Amino acid sequence: xxxxxxxxxxxxxxxxxxxxxxxxxxxxxxxxxxxxxxxxxxxxxxxxxxxxxxxxxxxxxxxxxxxxxxxxxxxxxxxxxxxxxxxxxxxxxxxxxxxxxxxxxxxxxxxxxxxxxxxxxxxxxxxxxxxxxxxxxxxxxxxxxxxxxxxxxxxxxxxxxxxxxxxxxxxxxxxxxxxxxxxxxxxxxxxxxxxxxxxxxxxxxxxxxxxxxxxxxxxxxxxxxxxxxxxxxxxxxxxxxxxxxxxxxxxxxxxxxxxxxxxxxxxxxxxxxxxxxxxxxxxxxxxxxxxxxxxxxxxxxxxxxxxxxxxxxxxxxxxxxxxxxxxxxxxxxxxxxxx
Length: 339
Description:
CATH class of the largest domain: Alpha Beta
Strand order of the largest sheet: 10-11-9-12-15-14-13
CATH superfamily of the largest domain: Dihydrodipicolinate Reductase, domain 2
Shape: globular
Helix content: 25-40%
């Protein structure tokens, strides 16, 4: 380990945890020491980082002595249990779960959009929901161009959003169906191979599932637009990784031209324009997978609404939707001297 920060990853053996390791190594994040933490089930497992082998330790309230930055991706319940202990030990927690996102005392940050909010942290910074991040990477630059009044979004969410076991279930079920075998869902509530279904989260009293509710309220918080009209329909699809979204954006005063929108999106950090009408080539999850950029395209006027544009996005749920965004928060804070 080189000079740098004392870093811990809680949930190091999960799908997002392993992406943390890849992103930190690829970005040459300044690490002086690294502590890998997980549940009792994964204690003792060996993981490799930057050519060194690390033994996974059991996550406890005493795991954070000397840690300066703690990346959490161990689920909301474990974040609620252990993140305060990390803060008490002196660490800044960047939490990937839903535990603290809507806490008014906790910044909810997408670095390209509202990094300044992280400056006001009280020990914990929340990483937004993956679908929220991917959507806002397209909405935010257009909102800066002309104020957005309403967003209607439909998502096509990959198995990666439900974790490594769900990804494996998609692979196993696909093989089973092709072999003519019966499929019994174990991780997801319905067959995912050759199927799609409403996002596997609880439905509230208004008929929205948790994923849809997160997109609505997190987006308002990140954009500092508490009254912005947003509605979402979230669907799980048989794609291994990378979420896609169809977005209709209605503007309050002036609809930007398609060319203006293309230019604003092309200039926005972390966005790659994929909008080739001649070749009918637009964002696809297979091309967004393992890429850091969010792909944006299908930009066109909504002919049913003179104030709206339509577009389509794809982004890697495990990267920009999770681990990459968290690491970028830390990088941005280091660059500004806040860490």
